[in-house]
Amino acid sequence: MKVVVLGGTRFIGRATVEELAAAGHELLLVHRGQLEPDDLPRVPHLHCERAELAAHRPELEAFGADAVIDFFALTRGDAEGALEAIPNADRRIVISSMDVYRAFGSVLVERETDPVPITEESPVRSDRYPYRGKLAGREDYDKLDVEDVYLPRGALSVRLPMVYGERDYQRREEFILRRVRAGRRQIPFGAGSWLTCRGYVRDIARAIRLALDNPSVTGVLNLCEDRSYSMRLWARMILEAAGSDAELVRVPDDTLPEDLQETGNMAQHVAASAQKARRVLGWTTSDPTDSLGTSVRWHLAHPPANASENFSADDRALGSV
Fold it and tell me: How far apart are the first and last CA of the chain?
């Protein structure tokens, strides 16, 4: 198929572009041009700001897309602009998030409202704009708004979990790895009982490719591993993959450093089920021990340039026990 990819140069998008190119799809990557790695598959690029998409409708029409995959629709306006610029594609896939579910909203306000695992039928948030006033640049962010625009047009919305893997710019394992690099022998930790859903980036990319090849699959689809590891077990797996024997030391929640807050008591679990994706796509996932090991090795070899070396908060927490 001819596929327009909105985004596609970072992390999940990049892994998906590699997956689609290897499968023989003809791609056009549309992005701002601020990040264009040399080792991306050799496909054409259209550089433009998201708000300028409609002005490039002639180039997009000339490409003749059969499908669109939108990795970076964050607001209602983003979604509406994409539909205006590429109105005639037969297949649309939009990347959404598990944060649409009520359970996720409950985490933010420290309440428990929902049983797990979360399925596609679980309640979604009644309140919109979860990061308004909390996160710069996300005042109008809400994947529920994005889905409201895309789903009536017959799109598939894939709701993603915490995605980890090589080139993860959010560095999901860094809460442990920065302490491993510093040679810390003890790491302050909460109860570590929180359950959240995760997915390995290349498994996610493969699911998106399978979804593209199955145009009858519309509506919403959860993507995640079929087992949820507690924060404590996940941290221990990261340490093992890093070859570290550092000790996780239980400390009071009110002493936890900021980047370790999620190891404390959390009122609402957000473990989810991807049984629907497994059934309708024939999707399978990697062994998390293997995929996490791959991710940890990559991130140890590519440390962030701005990693903090200040562990005074750790020392205070450890001194409280």
Answer: 60
Averaged over successive runs of 10 residues, the pLDDT of the chain (321 residues) comes to 95 97 97 81 93 93 97 96 95 98 94 97 96 89 98 97 97 97 97 97 98 96 96 98 98 97 96 97 97 98 91 96 87
User: pTM to 2 decimals?
Assistant: 0.96
Q: Are 111 and 86 in contact (CB under 8 A)?
A: no
Assigned token pair, 114: 């929902």
What is the 3-state secondary structure of the chain?
Answer: CEEEEECCCCHHHHHHHHHHHHCCCEEEEEECCCCCCCCCCCCCEEECCHHHHHHHHHHHHHHCCCEEEECCCCCHHHHHHHHHHCCCCCEEEEEEEHHHEHHHHHHHCCCCCCCCCECCCCCECCCCCCCCCCCCCCCCCCHHHHHHHHHHHCCEEEEECEEECCCCCCCCCHHHHHHHHCCCCEEEECCCCCEECEEEHHHHHHHHHHHHCCCCCCEEEECCCCCCCEHHHHHHHHHHHCCCCCEEEECCHHHCCHHHHHHCCCCCCECECCHHHHHHHCCCCCCHHHHHHHHHHHHHHCCCCCCCCCCHHHHHHHCCC
Task: Report the candidate in 95, 111, 93, 91 with the shortest Cα–Cα distance to residue 103.
Answer: 111
Complete edge-to-edge strand list for the sheet that includes strand 45-47: 45-47, 26-31, 2-6, 67-70, 91-97, 156-160, 219-222
Distance CA 294, CA 241 (A): 8
Compute the distance between CA of residue 286 and CA of residue 277 in angstroms, rounded to an integer: 15
For 179, counting Cβ atoms within 10 Å of its Cβ (0-12 exposed, 13-18 middle, 19+ buried), the class is: buried
Angle 254-260-266 from CA coordinates, rounded to 5°: 65
